[in-house]
Amino acid sequence: MTISLWAVVAFAAAALALLPIIAIAATAVADTGDLWGHIVQFVLPQASWNTLVLLAGTGLIATFVGTGAAWIVSAYDFRGRAFLEWALLLPLAVPTYIMAYAYLDILNPLGPVQGVLRWVLGYSSPRQFRLPDIRAMWGAILVFGFVLYPYVYLTARAMFLTQAANVTEVACVLGVPRSGIFWRVALPLARPAIAVGVSLALMEVLNDVGASQFLGVRTLTATVYTTWVVRTDLAGASQIALSMLAIVLAVLMLERWARRNQRYAAAAQNARQMQRQRLRGHSAVLAFALGLAPIAIGFAGPALYLVVAAIRRIEFAGFSSSLLRATLNTVSVSAIATLAILSVGFAVAYVARIHAARWSATAMRLASIGYAVPGTVLAIGILVPVAAVDRTLGSAWHAWTGLPGGLLLLGSGAALVYAYSARFMAISVGGIEAGLSRIPPAYDHASRTLGHPAIGTLLRVHLPLSRSSLTAAGLLVFVDCMKELPATLLLRPLNFESLATLLYGEAARGTYEDAALAALIIVAIGILPVILLAKTSRTFR
């Protein structure tokens, strides 16, 4: 009975994850009149080109910065290396839309950077000297690249740390100089990990709507948003969303194609880690400066700006009631979504443990598919079935009581919790499944031998031993729910503001000071998973 219940939950999670994609495909076949022709001719080509250029530029910067930083802290030993090892993860705490929002104010003609430059160069007016406007493709590429490089840094560094010392020693014996080990040994072996990190970074680019709009780059995501919200054309937005799904599928296939013929194996028993080369003098200073540069650009600069702007805002007007309401809304909805995601994620992962069959693995993959779907696309797919359920429930309530039914799911925030659950289920399932895999099957057999039923084994063995993985997954899910902007913008109830939507609205109106506090709260909470990742990395090493 218990096993069948777990299976029902797992298949229900898989069905709910697939439902938005099916709804998008069904909505996209609707007749949009002449609008689709206009979109194909005038909107889609430019938006697709901008998206591809942004993906290519972000991928190059994330690959170069992330891989280089991972190699510096893995292959060399110098003063400050231990600090860089965890500090290079800090940009993960800054969502892309906050990074864009901060740099728009920092680099504007009347901002601090250009003001200092004019003072140094002897100019007195922005008309005499001004930097190029960051509201351009190059600005968007830099912002995305320096926020998302930690995805590549994490995967590449993990691969560099697991490369045994005997591999580099054999290369040295065969005549490869120390400077050539990276290009001829370490980098080829790390290519699969780098490809995974780059694909994760590109998924985040496709999910963004705030940063691209702030920086004046019309991507497919922004086009979906404006087609739905501004033009009120759901079918047209669904058709563009299908184009985005095609790009997502292409990114995933490209990642697999890049390592299609590559196989790696470590035959050494109790392999030693690669010995770091000691750097001194100018070489140590240069290595530390190279590692510090992405931290300064991707975290320190925006964080310092947010702190200063928030202090000024508090001194001028204190905490506004709208900010307090947005904080309460964000924490409450994120907490509810996290509990739902952890509960369902545990059921999906637990089925894969107790039923080592192909159907259980398939259910786990399908339940996790939402992480590969951008939030804007997912919101469109969720709106259609949820609105249909709302209409059905409203009609039934009206027929029963004679009173208007209203929007039960959309108006209560249940649709938003559904969107969070579909989008971040992969984090829960992956983390919990990894924790359960560390529990030997012999523990299950011993529990059964001692007379405990399946539910007793779950409560007395599996839950206590997987507590750390549940906590880690819950923290990551909670922070991601707090930072999620596209789905929240499109599915929030009326008069509902989260910290992310409050920031988006204030920045769109140009009132940057009012948004600084909301951005600072998001960044401060976003540091929590960075601390967790740094702790996990130290434990792994």
Can you tell me about this structure?
The longest helix is centred in the first third of the chain and has 41 residues, at 35-75. By secondary structure, this protein is mainly alpha-helical. Helix 2 (35-75) runs antiparallel to helix 8 (181-207), helix 4 (96-106) crosses helix 12 (282-317) and helix 13 crosses helix 17. The protein has a two-stranded parallel sheet. It is 77% helix and 1% strand. The two termini are 42 Å apart. The mean pLDDT is 81. The protein has helices spanning 2-28, 35-75, 81-87, 96-106, 112-121, 137-162, 165-173, 181-207, 210-214, 220-229, 234-258, 282-317, 321-354, 358-367, 375-401, 408-412, 414-437, 441-449, 454-465, 467-483, 486-491, 499-509, 512-540, and strands at residues 76-77, 277-278. It has two domains: 1-28 and 319-509, MetI-like (MetI-like fold, Orthogonal Bundle), CATH 1.10.3720.10; 42-217 and 281-318, MetI-like fold (Orthogonal Bundle), CATH 1.10.3720.10.
Summary tags:
541 residues; mainly alpha; MetI-like fold; two-stranded parallel ribbon; 23 helices; 77% helix
Q: Layout of helices and strands, plus pairs?
A:
Elements: H1 2-28, H2 35-75, E1 76-77, H3 81-87, H4 96-106, H5 112-121, H6 137-162, H7 165-173, H8 181-207, H9 210-214, H10 220-229, H11 234-258, E2 277-278, H12 282-317, H13 321-354, H14 358-367, H15 375-401, H16 408-412, H17 414-437, H18 441-449, H19 454-465, H20 467-483, H21 486-491, H22 499-509, H23 512-540
Parallel strand pairs: 1-2
Helix pairs in contact: 1-11, 1-13, 1-14, 1-15, 2-6, 2-8, 2-12, 4-6, 4-12, 4-23, 6-8, 8-11, 10-11, 11-15, 12-23, 13-14, 13-17, 13-20, 15-17, 17-20, 18-19, 20-23, 22-23
